[in-house]
Amino acid sequence: DAGITQSPRYKITETGRQVTLMCHQTWSHSYMFWYRQDLGHGLRLIYYSAAADITDKGEVPDGYVVSRSKTENFPLTLESATRSQTSVYFCASSERGSGPYEQYFGPGTRLTVT
Amino acid sequence: QQPVQSPQAVILREGEDAVINCSSSKALYSVHWYRQKHGEAPVFLMILLKGGEQKGHEKISASFNEKKQQSSLYLTASQLSYSGTYFCGTMNNNAGNMLTFGGGTRLMVKP
Fold it and tell me: For testing the chain B interface, which of A4, A6, A43 should be mutated: the one with the most B CBs within 10 Å?
């Protein structure tokens, strides 16, 4: 299906485990973003990518790793999950050009770290 | 730095109007508005650009005061479907298409 998808939609993991959240978009958008959403904090940018093999830190990158080997995929890895990383994670994508452009959000992944 | 939204929450009756404000301490290039319903992803409403250009929603309007670094979202003759949390996202320059989001305004429209 066209659009932006995330998997899994729900995940429960234990402290210290590594977990990877997947994001896939079918529009060939250049920009992709990862946000976390916590009550009282709105949406905070974790990492973003301007193109394949180009990534950069956002506002709250500590404890997270990203990669982007293909334009359509932008996985987010929590190397050693902590309880403070319990959150809802949204992936988004947008075009690149003379901009600015709207961001299209995926459905989100609700992650619980026990 | 995160833009500040006000009010934090508002309750309306159908047909009433509301204004949501977004203020930044930094010079703004553009302001983006999104609406998020409970348990769903944020959905784009509109972009306001420095210089006055506006792109987006037909029934919701907004303003952008560059001097005050503020934007206001106007919801007129509100409908039940307007309920949700509204976020403003700000860009300080036209590089990277990165947004810094405010904390959100929860809007509830009652019959």
Answer: A43
Q: Which residues of B touch A94 (CB under 8 A)?
A: 97
At which residue do the structure tokens 């305004």 appear?
A: B105
Give the single-character DSSP code of B39.
Answer: T
Q: Mean of the per-residue pLDDT values for chain B? A: 90
Provide the pLDDT for residue B93.
78
Q: Which long-range contacts (CB under 8 A, 24 or more apart) does A49-57 make?
A: A49/A74, A50/A96, A50/B96, A51/A96, A56/B96
Q: How many CA atoms lie within 13 A of B49 on its CB side?
A: 12
- What is the rounded average pLDDT of the residues A22-50? 94
Q: Strands, E, within A3-94: which ranges?
A: 4-7, 10-13, 19-25, 31-38, 42-51, 54-57, 64-66, 76-78, 87-94
Interface check for A48 against chain B (CB to CB < 8 A): the answer is yes
Q: Which residues contact A72 (CB under 8 A, 6 or more apart)?
A: A24, A25, A26, A28
Block residue for tokens 């500590």? A62
A77-109: pLDDT as tens digits: 999 999 999 999 999 999 887 778 899 999 999
- Return the higher-pLDDT residue of B94 and A17: A17
A76 bridge partner residues: A21, A66
Q: What is the rounded distance in angstroms from the CA atom of residue B9 to the CA atom of residue A109?
A: 25
Find residue A37's DSSP bridge partners: A43, A88
Share of chain B above pLDDT 90, in %: 69
